[in-house]
Amino acid sequence: MTGVPLSFNQEFLLAFDKGDADGAFGERHTLVDAWRISGPLEPEVIQQALDDVVARHDVLRTTVVPDGGGRQVVHPSGPAELSVRALPGGDRDLVAEELLNEVDDQPLNVRELPLVRAVLGQFDADDSVLVLATHHVASDDWSMGLLARDLAACYTARLTSTPVELPAAPQYAEFAAWQRRHGHPDEAALAHWRNKLTGASMTAVPTDRPLPDDRHDVYAAYRSIFDDDLSARLQAFARSVRSTPFMVLLAAHQMQLRDMTGVDAVMTPTFTAGRYQEHFNNTVGPFFNLLPLLTDLTGTRHLRDVVGRVRASCFEAYAHDIPFSDIVDQVPRIAEPFGDPGGAVVAFQVLQPPAFADELTLGRATGSAIRERRLSQSRSSSIPNGGSWALEVLRSGRIASNLKYNANTFDEPTIAGIADDLRHRLTAALT
Question: In the beta sheet, which residues pair with residue 294?
């Protein structure tokens, strides 16, 4: 298939294209998730199911061509890469996370289709780890859950020689065409962002040094877990002020940014699902949208005061959730800090993986998502620019933190200090 128009988000990703090594189309701009599997798995059936998933979702075999304003080209289905390996003994939970980090560190060339691969690590016949990796130009966090769900369903169908039970999945190219026809924001939404953001810009975290001219981006990940007491206090406080944990965490982070920069009007980007039509809820693709959250912290001293303002900013922004490129068209200045060599714009989000991806059924085996990651990485999957701070409320109630940064512009002690400072601020405010 040729000549399919790009979605607005694919156009946005093209703006961060830096070639094979860095940027949105770079070989490390990937997403990786893993599941601990209890029960028997047959690798050859996993391969068949993986190929079924590639055939089901065109975007996994789509290339983005920038010529003439950009278009997407869908290629014929082909086999996906599955690696099977034996895992060593010892602390199996630790080994499983080490495998996840290892795959997270591996490059994935955007020109080598399909844009998904799997690794099956086996401790024994009834204990294994299944890792899925995709390129971010073909997926997002919600899509990873869809891929896992579909893989499990296809595996069970293949194993039992029964029809696969999955809902219809419109193709991402259909979404792009729909967006071109119906997805343009109205004047009221554009006017909102012009009025809200004029004169403001993203608030960047000061780096330890600019990126040297002879260096590529090398992204690292600093991970930590909030203890049970702080996690419980934070969630109870969020309920007491009619807010979400994300709003409380963002409030503490924006207070950090104010103290780092001396700026009272703090603007932080976050991600929204970007799935504006329920019709595409089972579609795999890069739907995610970047949304700026501007909060005026003038005169605030306590977390409770800031949470109230952040809550209002969030509701206002979500009510006017339009493609980030349209917002930048209205107020170009907000994007200038992305190019500042002395600062890094850090996107802030609390992940909400789909519940159907947490527990998988693969024939006689069951899988549980590996969410509580504690091992940091000196090199990990990357992002197009700046940094990314992703937190998640785990099933245990604890809060996991994953702060991704460019190791060529930040030292790890700086990043560890920022993560520790957030935790200390919350502890002091909530105790």
Answer: 267
Q: Is the pTM of this model over 0.90?
A: yes
DSSP string, 295-336: EE-TT--SHHHHHHHHHHHHHHHHTT---HHHHHHH-GGGGG
Which residue type does 341 have? P
114: preceding bond cis by omega (within 30 degrees): yes
Output the CA angle 425-428-430, nearest 5 degrees. Answer: 100
CA 288 vs CA 7, 61, 67, 176, 376: distances in Å: 11, 19, 23, 13, 25
Helix (H) or strand (E) holding 141: helix 141-160
Q: Which residues are CB-neighbours of 78 under 8 A, at least 6 positions away?
A: 54, 61, 113, 114
Q: Do residues 59 and 285 touch, judged by C-beta distance below 8 A?
A: yes
User: H helices then E strands: how many in the chain?
Assistant: 11, 16
CA–CA distance, 100 with 402 (Å, rounded to integer): 14
Three-state DSSP state, 77: coil
In sequence order, what E strands does 139-213 have? 205-206
Q: Are strands 62-65 and 71-74 parallel, antiparallel or unpaired?
A: antiparallel
Identify the residue whose tokens are 């690590």. 121
Quote the CA–CA distance of 366 and 41 in Å, as a whole number: 10
Q: How many C-beta atoms lie closer than 10 Å to residue 296's C-beta? A: 12
Tokens of 428: 């002091």
DSSP structural state of residue 80: P
CA distance 72 to 79: 20
Residue 28, both tokens: 């490390």
- Measured CA to CA, the distance from residue 39 to residue 50 in angstroms comes to 19
For the record, the structure tokens of 129 come out as: 């780890």
Q: Under a CB-based contact definition with an 8 Å cutoff, are residues 378 and 363 in contact? A: no
CA 48 vs CA 60, 153, 163, 274: distances in Å: 16, 12, 14, 31
Question: In whole angstroms, what is the distance from residue 289 CA to residue 274 CA?
Answer: 5
| 3-class secondary structure per residue, 68-107 | HHCEEEECCCCCCEEEEEECCCCCHHHHHHHHHHHHHCCC
Contact status, residue 50 vs residue 80, Cβ threshold 8 Å = yes
Handedness of CA 203, 208, 211, 215 (dihedral sign): negative
- Average pLDDT per 10 consecutive residues for the chain, totaling 431 residues: 82 86 91 98 98 98 88 95 96 98 96 97 98 97 97 98 96 95 92 96 96 86 98 98 97 97 97 92 96 97 96 96 94 93 95 93 97 96 94 96 97 98 97 88
